[in-house]
Amino acid sequence: MGTDPLTITAWALAALAVILAWPAPILLSRARWPRRSPATAMILWQAIGLAGGLSMIGAMLTWGLAPLGDNLLSALERLFRIVFLNGSVEGLLFWHAFALSAAALLGAHLLFTLALTYFRIARQRRRHRELLLLLSSPAEQPGTVVINHAAPVAYCLPGGARSVTVLSDGLLNLLSSQELQAVLTHENTHLLQRHHLLLWAFAAWKSALPWLPTSKLAQRSVNELIEMLADDAALRVVAEPTLVRSIALVASGTTSLDTEPPLAGKAGLTPSNATPDNVLPAPEDATAARLERLLHPQPPLGQIGRAGILLLSALLLAAPTALLVLPTLW
C-alpha cells in the first residue's frame, strides 16, 4: 500500500463509502428515533446518500491520480496533459487508468440516471394528468378532483401550479368533514414540502445502484418518513383519533404518494406502468408504523439530540470534500 497523500485519501474515501453504503443505512433504518423527529432523520438520509456517492467517486478518482502527482491539483494538471496534450504516461499503470475510467463512468451514470428518472416520472405524471381530465370531476376544495371509484383512495399528483389532490367517491362517502380535512392537509403537505423531489432523488439512487440492497432500504425509509411528516402537519388541524381513523380508511384503498390504481384499471394501464418510479407502494408495516406512532406517541428528540444529528449530517457532507482538499494543502 502506498503512503503518498492521494493513496491515503483514496483508502479513507473507500472506507467512508463502504460505511455509508452498508452499515450506516441498515442501522438508521432499524433505529426508533427517526419516528420521533422525521425531518431530522430525512436530512441524515440525504447526507448519507450524497456523501456516499461522493466518496465512491472520490476514492476511485484519487486512487487513479495517485501516481500522477503529490496532490490533487498537480495530479489533475498532469492528467489534463496526458488526455489533451499527449503527455507522458510514466507511472500510470493499468489499474490506475481503470480507476479513473470507473470514476468518470460512475459519475456520468449517476447524473444520467438522475435525469432519466426525472423525465420518466414527468412523462408518467403528464399521462396521468391527461387521464384525470377525462375521468375526474372538480371537488369543492380548490386543487382537488374526484374520481368515480368505490375504494377509498387519496393521493396527490405533483406538478407545480398544476398540482392536484385526487379523492375517490368511495373515500368521500366514508369520511366525516374532520377526517376529510385531515386527508387534504396530509396530501397538501406532500405538495407544499416538495416530497416528490426527495422521492425522485432516492428513486434515482435505487435505479443507478440496484445491486446495492441499502438503496432500496433507503427509499422505503424515506417514503415512510414523508408520510410521518404529513401526519404531523395533519395533527395540527385535527385531533389524533380523527387522523388515525382517516389513515385506516385510506389504507384500505391506497396510501402512497402518486399511486394511481383506479385510473390504471379504467385506462388500460397496468399497475407497473401507472405508478411513477419515485414512489413505493406503501407496505402494510409502514401504515402500521404510522398508526403505532400516533397511538403511542413518543416525545420528539431534544434540541441537543437534533443538533447532534444535524452536525453529523454536516460532517458527512464535508468529509469527502475535506479528504479531497487536504492532500492539496500537504
Automatic annotation (TrEMBL):
How many cofactors are bound and how?
Answer: Binds 1 zinc ion per subunit.
GO biological process entries = proteolysis
Q: Which GO terms describe its molecular function?
A: metal ion binding; metalloendopeptidase activity
Write out the entry's keywords from A to Z: Hydrolase, Membrane, Metal-binding, Metalloprotease, Protease, Transmembrane, Transmembrane helix, Zinc
List the InterPro entries. Answer: Beta-lactam_resp_regulator, Peptidase_M48
Cofactor(s) listed in the protein's UniProt record: Zn(2+)
Residue ranges of the TM segments: 6-28, 40-66, 93-119, 309-329
Highest taxon of the source? Bacteria
Q: Where does the record place the Peptidase M48 domain?
A: 131-202
Give the start-end ranges of region Disordered: 256-282
Q: CDD domains from the entry?
A: M56_BlaR1_MecR1_like (cd07326)
Q: Which Pfam families match?
A: Peptidase_M48 (PF01435)
Q: Which family does it belong to?
A: Belongs to the peptidase M48 family.
This protein is called: Peptidase M48
Q: What is the lineage of its organism?
A: Bacteria, Bacillati, Actinomycetota, Actinomycetes, Micrococcales
